[in-house]
């Protein structure tokens, strides 16, 4: 097992001293799922409230910044934070100003006009190329614009602490900075998973950010007893075992890597459970015709090589539920299928039920995973913890140094 560095604690709000009449920029992760302009899960907005309320009570002048989606450095009306400002205002029970730009004259005027305890949300950070630039100087320049006129920075977007982006890393370096309450609370739970996980320890992986998350597996193999693979990720595993997967999500250039994981798991005695059956659909659509097929014969469905895998099958769901039931600790990231379409939500529901029903310590990580369990009718109390960060919590569990936490230590 690789040596486990103890991570230094992050600075908390107390380190910033008295914030009355101070201009405080708060990085939140308000990246909520939207459907036709409607917020379909407001968990991340609710999770941000504790810090905002505390700063209001402290009399700070609060400038909130966040990203939404991946608009690629240019304005995109479909990724505007305006609907989020409206919902935040309702949940906070206090006015939340909004300006349609992140930096510029209008933003500067609105920031300067804030009075003690008032809240302003700026437009999507990722409309600006400097936010996600690979060039450190560009990120630094954008962070300097965000920092202008501010006295302090609070990092509370747990979902992005694994990103080296201007509002996460360079902004924290530009101002006196500390972790907000959400980041601190998330770290407390995740520390329990990394330092003393009760065994057997099972990790369930799914979702669609396959290339982001495959790499996590190498590190998880050193730490877990069982890995259950569903969601978009499973098809790269099936391909690694020599099976055809039609038009399903596939990272062809990762097949060799995945073969390496399978061999390594065998060497270490880690159980990787792959689906025995999957749901093949005629197309990626809510009302697509579909059929359950053996995972090792995916193209045997009536859609042949045109089929696209959108969920794990019922046998797989049962075997995953059984493995979860036998575990003392379970971490789950990524839906098992395209749960947004009811016809392909059964696998995700089965896994959620198994987590809710086990006596073990359960943690769900990820914006979409959290949205999935809530949309299927589970309440947050059914699970040990629902983390707002998908990629972030996984990278934390991997043992990686997260850039957004390093700058707060
Ligand atoms: N077989 C599949 N094919 C395509 N997409 C899938 C499949 N299974 C699940 N998905 C999609 O995966 C998406 C969620 O994946 P993602 O990796 O973003 O999850 P998350 O970790 O919970 O979220 P985040 O990383 O954004 O916090 C869902 O929108 C779901 O429809
Ligand atoms: O949804 C997430 O995991 C966070 O909001 C981070 O988004 P990103 O993967 O686009 O950086």
From TrEMBL:
Q: By its UniProt entry, which Pfam families does this protein fall under?
A: PGK
> Which annotated residues bind substrate?
29-31, 44, 67-70, 126, 163
Q: Which UniProt keywords apply?
A: ATP-binding, Cytoplasm, Glycolysis, Kinase, Nucleotide-binding, Transferase
Carries keyword Cytoplasm?
Answer: yes
- A Gene Ontology term for the protein's cellular component: cytosol
Gene3D superfamilies per UniProt: Phosphoglycerate kinase, N-terminal domain
Give the EC number: 2.7.2.3
Q: Which GO terms describe its biological process?
A: gluconeogenesis; glycolytic process
| Metabolic or biological pathway | Carbohydrate degradation; glycolysis; pyruvate from D-glyceraldehyde 3-phosphate: step 2/5
Instruction: Please list the reactions this protein catalyses.
Output: (2R)-3-phosphoglycerate + ATP = (2R)-3-phospho-glyceroyl phosphate + ADP
* Gene Ontology molecular-function annotations: ADP binding; ATP binding; phosphoglycerate kinase activity
Name of the protein described by the UniProt record? Phosphoglycerate kinase
Originating species: Leucobacter weissii
